Amino acid sequence: MAQVTLRKIVKKYDEVLAVRGIDLDIVDKEFLVLVGPSGCGKSTTLRMIAGLEEISGGDIEIGGHVVNDVPPKDRDIAMVFQNYALYPHMNVYENMSFGLKLKKTPKDEIDRRVKQAAGILDITELLDRKPKQLSGGQRQRVAMGRAIVRDPKVFLFDEPLSNLDAKLRVQMRTEIKKVHQKVRTTTVYVTHDQIEAMTLADRVVVMNAGLIEQVGTPNDLYHSPATKFVAGFIGSPAMNFIPCQLEQAAGALSVRLSDKLSFPVPSDRTARYASHAGKANLVLGLRPEHIAETRPHTEANQHDFDMMIDVDEPMGMETLIYFTIGGADVCGRVNPNAGAMSGKAMKLRADLSNMHLIDDSTGKVL
Amino acid sequence: MANTAIAAGATARPLKYGSMSRDRRWALRWSYFFLVLFAIFFLMPPIYMLITSLKTSAEISAATNPWWIYNPTLENYIELLTQNHYLTFFRNSAIVSVCVVAVTMVISVIAAFALARMKFWGSATLATGVFLTYLIPETLLFIPLFKMFAWVNETFGIQLMNHWWTLIILYPTLTVPFCTWIMIGYFASIPKELDEAALIDGATWTQTLTKIFIPVALPGIIAATIFAFTVSWAQFLYPLAFTTSATELVLPVGIITTLIKGDVFNWGQIMTGALLGAAPPLVIYAFLMDYYIAGLTAGATKG
Predict the structure, then answer these.
(1) CB distance B251 to B273 below 8 Å
(2) Radius of gyration of chain B from its Cα atoms, rounded to whole angstroms
(3) How do residues B36-48 score in pLDDT, each as one tens digit?
(4) Closest CB from B196, B202, B215 relative to A102
(5) Do B197 and A102 touch (CB under 8 A)?
(6) Last residue of a domain, one of A191, A225, A259
(7) Which structural domain range is residue A87 located in?
(8) What is the pLDDT of residues A39-76, one digit of tens each?
(9) What is this structure's pTM?
């Protein structure tokens, strides 16, 4: 059993608070991803779990034991670094067996474990090579192998794919997921790439400015973000934020985006939003895929409107269109055959069933 | 010859396409010119020494061509190598240098590791301090050192003056600061994740140093070793000031104190002694040259 628990974790560098009191429960065998922009404290949090940074306040538990003052080697963790951190003077076999040798593991046991890990990662034929003779992807595999052979309670990954090129990154992403499915070790993974976070994680932790914004499954975060930050951070292209007013007339609510443009609020949301009618600083959050070209058949909460397209970006499987509403840039995703063209007007359709109403003064999704 | 090379190239293809290789050819020519010039400049003294060492004293003082040997003889070599003094100097020098290199490397590698990696209060100031120590000229140091030795003698009754082994204590004052500085720079170029990985793998600080840092920084260690050896082999001022008896002298001082008698300079033997004395560093350089160059250029690009 290797659950990891963080209680009110604080990290202070001189006077700067890098991590401002976070609570987190990572359950056994879980793949948890910490994601956020640079400087949000995600790497610091990971390094505190590893024991590479001292904590300034709070408690860290691994497998039910408080490890605040336990040195890294006794925490039973393994870490994979962004720049691989392979020992350049040792070959792959020696790199992978180094930790076991220090623990005075019997030779045949070391051999068995190294070969097994090499088998999992498909690097058996590289065992006698030096790190400089390996490609980036192979080095990353070896770094993972070094972690696997130690059979730790927790795997820690610190942006392991950031040094790889785009294609290899996607490939290694799948690889990491496969390895986790095979070894089922509790994993904490840090990345700034929200796609990596979404694809790998059982649960994602979105961090911002040293605090946790939201914890949830990838789908939770995507469909029910708790804050504007999460709504904007998860998803690519990012969610559209359009300043709006919530108007109440004859018992019906509607969001007014501009003088000409106003959509009725879906009936199942009326009760939730009613108290916010007339408030200032409201923002409508709508994902690009909920703005598409008009179609003959209309479903509930779908509303057509005409708009002048500023820019069109054909992506092949879809075309991204950009236009402005009330000064806010808005992105939509239309069918490549819908005839979207820069500078031309187009009939679009907004699907409000997945709308979010955000109070911009608190940053909270209402 | 140079012109014919260009002319040949010109017939093969239009000149304007070959401007890159033409530039390179000229650059190479200048390189060779200056390299030969410098080689002559720097080889002149040792060659002069070699020539002189093969002459008799009479021929050296005769007004003949100094660059030519009319009566070659090995007399100087035989005399020097059968003389007890010279071999004693050689032995003293060898023991002192080997010990100094060992002491220096043990101290400076450990010190550099601590200063470069174990961030502790004042470590940065200490690192700068180490370098500043190196900048103090040795001529300023030997009077305070004299005072210290006198104090040691008064307090503990240990006479440090006029013993060859005293030099093993003295030379590290010159070699340790610089070698530590080289090693700090070398260790600093090793990515931090490497020791963090070792830390997580369960290595202690000592294991991180011996199993990771020393093997990775080997070129730097060899560069520092060569430096320490050269300094202690060629050091002149300290042995001159601190040793006097013929049995306690090292090579550089021994040669001049025993082979210059009053105003009589035994040039033939002086040159022979100096030439033979230059052999050990030469042999060591030849063996370690590749590593030495790798060490000097390390840090130029992050490896």
Answers:
(1) yes
(2) 26
(3) 999 999 999 999 9
(4) B202
(5) no
(6) A225
(7) 4-225
(8) 888 999 999 999 998 899 899 999 888 999 999 988 98
(9) 0.79
